[in-house]
């Protein structure tokens, strides 16, 4: 289809494969070009079914567009044997295949092999018998598999959850940011009425390029299930629907009873910066410093601290990860904690010969790496040079150390590991800290976490953190367990899904999910806290989003500088603050914190698509595959 | 379409007070024989000199007139379903006829067909778990 006319060339030239030369005169819109393309189009359509009216790709199909532009107005097709027909493949609960529509461009094969690292996808047969498939009956178990839907120029690979639900021209497009991991992939939400029909990636070369993970793409149906719709007040063993007024006065009464640090606030993975800063201000006004993040270590001052910004962010940036030549990952599984970063690392492995060493649980990262060890002892081996990888790290020109958020938030050894990493960074400071390069990274996995630390949503001291809580405010905190909630405390849960957190609450306040809030990942829930503050008698000084945002920028100026990566200074100094001599290792294994990639937050846990994925790819069971009747 | 002459003539015949009321409710002046009055006090008139289709009309008793306030039997006469007015028809009301229903449109009693659309989202079924 890319045939063009080149001056003084006897035949049309395939522009995608022809070397370009100075002085060449290329014509793209001449009768010769049209005639040549019409010919190619005829060959493509010879074996392509004419089922556009029932095809999910209809309206956004490359072949449809091309045939409208270059195709002939009539067919010369009169083969008595009929068109080629190919059996459909089972690619799992995410990708629907109609292989008869395939025009064998092999984009999906190239993506699966080169980007996603799912080498099982390939072609078999030749010529007219060529087929795309997995050779033996198998589903594609890659967390990036949804992208082949976008890549397919025809309707051969389409989205299974989206099948027969909407047409592209009836959808309203909203640009947004993903919150299922800390990458913040740029996405586009396509909605019809009040419903989100699908999620597509947006191009951003700094972050997600043009890919998004399957969780980002397919968890949207979770937004329609298990929602909190009305304030609930617990009476005995059940929740009773209440009015906002009742709920807020009940909370305010309990709030006035509790004093100082016995009021505890926990910010979860999906909490937005606005509501966190409003909640922090409210609690500070009541004299409480007992703020925590929703993680096992979240109630103590964190190992990274929140004083130096460079100590808890990905300093090398996501696109910068490609430039590193040696990467040491400590206690993280980037494939599950942020698949986008993992594809970057895979890209660097394939094209730049990047070396990777991993300390932690041995996992399949879709590329080769050196597994150094499972616990902090391996880090000592790197430090004293007894492991061969230490040499690689020493010789590296642009080394990169990635410490997983699990080390900081979940592991018992967090302080020790970070102190050792700081020591290691000190040893390689010439290469690790260069002009325009900071090789020390903490890789967060929760969308809200960096914001929480920027705001300072952590306990300010051991003393504040150890106060037993009488009043607990859970802001989107859904990773908590029954143990984290004191029995006699009054618990308020604010969030959008009836998940772990809401079960333990005394009062449940419904809020908006990220797709329903104002464009950026922010807003309305700050207003609930504002309303609460007035009832409780300590009015917060902001009424609307702009004034709340200006408070946000007072607390941390970087929070309102959108679209820009703020590079913190003092990277090295900040890191040296983590060096401690008095901490001991417990020798615990740095295990992966994401056990089930497909269900990590309230939205994906409520999603039936994600439930199918985890049943198939995590538990290894079969899932029912029939077309779902237009789901609620 | 009314002419100035006809309007003035009808104002003279109907009297200024009822002509003013007619102009406010019907937007026209009319004069005719009073054929009858129904149970709620609506007055029914007939003038066969009017142009076709405008010979019979009603002047509502209510200050908030609505066609549904016309009793069914008078409605028959008004729409020329029958020639003679109900006063001359000797109608024997049947028990099962019941009372005529007023027009509920715009009120809470208005008819709304039940919704066949599935709910767009499902609410959480609240469940309490015990803390440890």
Task: Provide a brief overview of the structure.
The complex is a heterodimer of chains A (632) and B (132). Chain A contains 22 helices and 24 strands.
What characteristics describe this protein?
heterodimer; A: alpha/beta; seven-stranded mixed beta sheet; five-stranded parallel beta sheet; 22 helices; 24 strands; B: 132 residues; alpha+beta; three-stranded antiparallel beta sheet; 21% helix
Description:
The complex is a heterodimer of chains A (632) and B (132). By secondary structure, chain A is of the alpha/beta class. Helix content of chain A is 30%, strand content 16%. Chain A has a seven-stranded mixed beta sheet with strand order 12-11-24-23-22-13-14, covered by helices on one side. In chain A, helix 7 (273-285) runs parallel beside helix 18. Chain B is 21% helix and 10% strand. Chain B is elongated, with a radius of gyration of 24 Å. The model of chain B has no long low-confidence stretch (mean pLDDT 89). Chain B is of the alpha+beta class. Chains A and B meet through loops of A and loops of B. Chain A: Keywords: 4Fe-4S, Iron, Iron-sulfur, Metal-binding, NAD, Translocase.
State which percent range the strand residues of chain A make up: 15-25%
Fraction in beta strands of chain B: 5-15%
The pLDDT mean of chain A sits at: 84
Uncertain runs of chain B are none
Structural class of chain A: alpha/beta
Largest interface, and how many residues on either side? Answer: A-B, 30 and 15 residues
Rg over alpha carbons of chain B: 24 Å
- Subunit organisation of the chains: heterodimer
Order of strands, widest sheet of chain B: 1-2-3
Cα-atom radius of gyration of chain A:
27 Å
Tally of alpha and pi helices of chain B: 3
Which structural class do the helices and strands of chain B define?
alpha+beta
Give the low-pLDDT segments of chain A: 517-527
Order of helices and strands of chain B: HHEEEH
Provide the helix percentage of chain A.
25-40%
Order of neighbouring strands in the sheet with most strands of chain A: 12-11-24-23-22-13-14
Subcellular location (chain B): Mitochondrion inner membrane
Family (chain B): Belongs to the complex I NDUFA12 subunit family.
Keywords (chain B): Electron transport, Membrane, Mitochondrion, Mitochondrion inner membrane, Respiratory chain, Transport
Membrane topology (chain B): Peripheral membrane protein
């Amino acid at each position: 289809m890319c045939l063009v006319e080149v001056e003084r060339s006897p035949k049309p030239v395939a522009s995608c494969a022809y070397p370009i030369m100075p002085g060449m005169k290329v014509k793209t819109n001449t009768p010769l070009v049209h005639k040549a393309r019409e010919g190619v189009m005829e060959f493509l359509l010879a074996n392509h079914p004419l089922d556009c009216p029932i095809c999910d790709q209809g309206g956004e199909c490359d072949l449809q567009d091309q045939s409208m532009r270059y195709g002939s107005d009539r067919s010369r097709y009169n083969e008595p044997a009929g068109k080629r027909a190919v059996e459909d493949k089972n690619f799992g609960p995410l990708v629907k295949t109609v292989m008869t529509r395939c025009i064998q461009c092999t984009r999906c094969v190239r993506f699966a092999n080169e980007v996603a690292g799912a080498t099982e996808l390939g072609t078999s047969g030749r010529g007219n018998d060529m087929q795309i498939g997995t050779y033996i009956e198998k589903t594609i178990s890659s967390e990036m598999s949804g992208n082949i839907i976008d890549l397919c120029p025809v309707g051969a690979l389409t989205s299974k959850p989206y099948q027969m639900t909407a047409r592209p021209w009836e959808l309203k497009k909203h640009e947004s940011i993903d919150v299922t991991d800390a990458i913040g992939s740029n996405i586009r939400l396509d909605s019809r009425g009040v419903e989100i029909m699908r999620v597509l990636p947006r191009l951003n070369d700094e972050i997600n390029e043009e890919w998004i993970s399957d969780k980002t793409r397919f968890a949207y149906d979770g937004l329609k299930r298990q929602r909190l719709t009305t304030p609930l007040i617990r009476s005995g063993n059940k929740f009773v629907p209440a009015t906002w007024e009742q709920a807020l006065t009940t909370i305010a009464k309990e709030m006035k009873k509790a004093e100082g640090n016995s009021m505890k606030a926990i910010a979860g993975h999906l909490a937005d910066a606005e509501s966190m800063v409003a909640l922090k201000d409210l609690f500070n006004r009541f004299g409480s410093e007992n703020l925590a993040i929703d993680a096992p270590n979240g109630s103590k001052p964190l190992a990274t601290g929140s004083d130096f910004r460079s100590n808890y962010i990905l300093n090398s940036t996501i696109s910068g990860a490609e430039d590193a030549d040696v990467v040491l990952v400590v206690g993280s599984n980037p494939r599950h904690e942020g698949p986008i970063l993992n594809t970057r690392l895979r890209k660097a492995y394939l094209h730049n010969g990047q070396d990777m060493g991993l300390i932690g649980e041995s996992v399949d990262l879709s590329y080769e790496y050196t597994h150094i060890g499972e616990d902090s002892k391996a880090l000592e081996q790197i430090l004293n040079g007894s492991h061969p990888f230490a040499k690689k790290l020493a010789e590296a020109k642009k080394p990169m150390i990635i410490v997983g958020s699990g080390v900081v938030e979940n592991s018992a050894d967090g302080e020790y590991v970070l102190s050792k990493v700081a020591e290691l960074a000190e040893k390689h400071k010439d290469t690790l800290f260069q002009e325009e390069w900071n090789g020390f990274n903490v890789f967060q996995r929760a969308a809200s976490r960096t914001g929480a630390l920027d705001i300072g949503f952590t306990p300010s001291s051991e003393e504040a953190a150890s106060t037993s809580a009488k009043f607990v405010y859970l802001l989107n905190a859904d990773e908590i367990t029954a143990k984290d909630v004191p029995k006699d405390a009054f618990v308020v849960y604010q969030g959008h899904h009836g998940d772990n957190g809401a079960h333990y609450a005394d009062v449940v306040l419904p809020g908006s999910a990220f797709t329903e809030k104002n464009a950026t990942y922010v807003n309305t829930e700050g207003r609930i806290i504002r309303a609460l503050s007035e009832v409780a008698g300590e009015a917060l000084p902001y009424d609307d989003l702009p004034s709340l945002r200006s408070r946000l920028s007072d607390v941390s100026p970087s929070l309102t500088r959108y679209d820009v990566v703020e590079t913190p200074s003092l990277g090295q100094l900040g890191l040296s603050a983590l060096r401690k001599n008095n901490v001991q290792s417990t020798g615990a294994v740095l295990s992966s914190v994401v056990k089930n990639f497909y269900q990590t937050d309230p939205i994906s846990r409520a999603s039936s698509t994600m439930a199918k994925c985890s049943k198939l790819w995590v538990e290894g069971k079969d899932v029912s595959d029939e077309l779902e009747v237009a789901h609620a | 379409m009314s002419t100035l002459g006809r309007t003035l003539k009808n104002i003279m015949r109907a009297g200024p007070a009822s002509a003013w009321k007619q102009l406010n409710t019907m937007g026209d002046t009319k004069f005719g024989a009073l054929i009858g009055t129904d149970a709620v006090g609506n007055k029914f008139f007939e003038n066969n000199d009017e142009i076709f289709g405008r010979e019979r009309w009603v002047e509502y008793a209510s200050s908030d007139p609505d066609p549904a306030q016309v009793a069914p039997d008078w409605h028959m006469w008004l729409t020329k379903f029958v020639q003679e007015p109900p006063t001359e028809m000797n109608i024997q009301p049947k028990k099962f006829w019941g009372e005529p229903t007023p027009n509920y449109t715009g009120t809470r009693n208005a008819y709304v067909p039940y919704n066949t659309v599935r709910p767009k989202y499902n609410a959480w079924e609240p469940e309490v778990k015990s803390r440890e």
